[in-house]
Write a structure and sequence with these properties.
mainly alpha
C-alpha cells in the first residue's frame, strides 16, 4: 500500500475534528442547546463539520491510488471490507450490549444502520462505497471528465439543499448518507489520480483559499445557528450534509493537503497517529462519557472547558488506542 504523508495527516486531522464535534455537542446537549450563551462551543462544532465528508473523500483517494487491477472482486472485498467490517461488528456489539443498553432496536437493524452508537452511522455507508468502488473505477474515465464531474457536483448540491433546507430524506441512514456524500468519494478518486496536479494548482491559488476559509467557517456557523432558531431541530447545526459544508470541505481539504505535502512533519509520527485513528473513532465515545462523568458536572467557563474537554478526550483516546495496538493481533478485531 502506498502511504502518502499528507493523507495520513489529513486522516489525523479528520479524527480530531470528529472528537471536537462530539465533545462540543455533549456540552450543547447538557446546556439544552443554549446557542447564545455557548456561541463559542457552537463555533468549534461548526468549524469541525468537514470531518466525516473528508474521511469519505480520503477513502476514495486511497482506494483509487492502491487498487489492484488484477485482483478479483471477491479478493478485493475480502481485503478491504474485512478491515472495516470486523472492527465495526465488534464495537457495535460492545456499544449495544454494554454501553447503550437502552437501545431496544433489533440487533440486525442496528448493525445495518450503524445505530449502536452515534458515531457509527457512517460505517455502513462506507461499506456501500467499498462495494461499489470497482464499478466506479471501471467508469473512472467517464466520471472524471470535467463536464460529468461538474454535473455530479451540482446534483450533489441540489440533493443537499433539498435535504437540509426543505425536507430531510426518509431513507435509512446508510442510503441517505450515500446519496448526500457520493461526490466526496468520487472527488477523492479523482484526486488520487491527479494529486500532483492538485498540489500544483493549489500552490497557485493558496492565498485566495486561505482567505476564503474563515469566511466559510463564519457562514456555516451563522447558517447553523439561524436555521436552529427557525426550526428548533438540532439537525440545523448538526448536519454536515449541506452545500456550504461541501464547499468548505473541498477548500479546506485542498489547502491542508498542499500544506502537509510541503511541510516537514516527521513521517513516523504522522503515520503512527493515522494508524491509530480508526480505533480512536470507535473508542472515543466510551472515553468521552467517562471523562464527562468527572468533569461535566463542573462546567465552568465555556471557552476553557470546551478546549480542555476536547484535549482530554483526544489524548486519552489516542493513549488507549496505542495501548490496545501493543497487544499482538488484537488490532485486527478492534481496528
Amino acid at each position: 500500500m502506498n502511504r502518502i504523508r499528507a493523507i495520513d495527516a489529513l486522516r489525523t486531522v479528520s479524527i480530531a475534528a470528529v472528537l471536537l464535534i462530539h465533545t462540543t455537542t455533549k456540552v450543547l446537549e447538557i446546556t439544552h442547546y443554549d446557542l447564545i450563551t455557548h456561541s463559542f462551543t457552537l463555533l468549534l462544532n461548526q468549524l469541525a463539520r468537514f470531518a466525516v465528508p473528508l474521511f469519505i473523500l480520503i477513502s476514495g483517494f486511497v482506494l483509487e491510488l492502491n487498487y489492484d487491477y488484477h485482483a478479483s472482486y471477491w479478493a478485493y472485498l475480502k481485503k478491504r471490507v474485512s478491515r472495516i467490517l470486523i472492527p465495526y461488528l465488534f464495537w457495535s456489539l460492545i456499544y449495544y450490549f454494554l454501553i447503550y443498553t437502552q437501545n431496544h432496536d433489533n440487533l440486525v437493524s442496528v448493525l445495518l444502520t450503524g445505530s449502536a452508537s452515534y458515531q457509527l452511522y457512517f460505517i455502513p455507508t462506507l461499506c456501500i462505497f467499498y462495494l461499489l468502488f470497482p464499478l466506479l473505477h471501471k467508469a473512472y474515465k467517464f466520471i472524471a471528465r470535467i463536464p460529468v464531474l461538474a454535473l455530479l457536483g451540482i446534483t450533489q448540491i441540489l440533493l443537499m439543499n433539498q435535504d437540509y433546507f426543505v425536507k430531510q430524506y426518509s431513507f435509512p441512514d446508510p442510503v441517505r448518507i450515500f446519496i448526500l456524500s457520493y461526490f466526496f468519494f468520487i472527488t477523492g478518486m479523482v484526486a488520487g489520480k491527479n494529486k500532483d496536479k492538485i498540489i500544483e494548482t493549489v500552490g497557485k491559488i493558496k492565498y485566495a483559499l486561505i482567505i476564503l476559509i474563515p469566511y466559510l467557517i463564519y457562514y456555516i456557523f451563522e447558517e447553523g445557528k439561524t436555521r436552529y432558531f427557525k426550526t428548533y431541530s438540532i439537525e440545523a447545526f448538526y448536519s454536515q450534509w449541506r452545500p456550504s459544508v461541501l464547499i468548505y470541505t473541498l477548500v479546506l481539504g485542498a489547502i491542508l493537503f498542499y500544506a502537509f505535502d510541503k511541510s516537514r512533519l516527521r513521517f513516523q509520527i504522522v503515520e503512527w497517529l493515522s494508524k491509530l485513528s480508526f480505533l480512536v473513532f470507535f473508542i472515543h465515545v466510551i472515553i468521552l462519557e467517562q471523562i464527562w462523568k468527572y468533569l461535566g458536572r463542573n462546567l465552568f467557563n465555556p471557552v476553557i472547558f470546551d478546549l480542555v474537554f476536547f484535549i482530554l478526550v483526544m489524548v486519552a483516546s489516542f493513549g488507549v488506542a496505542y495501548l490496545i495496538h501493543k497487544i499482538p493481533y488484537l488490532s485486527k478485531i478492534t481496528g
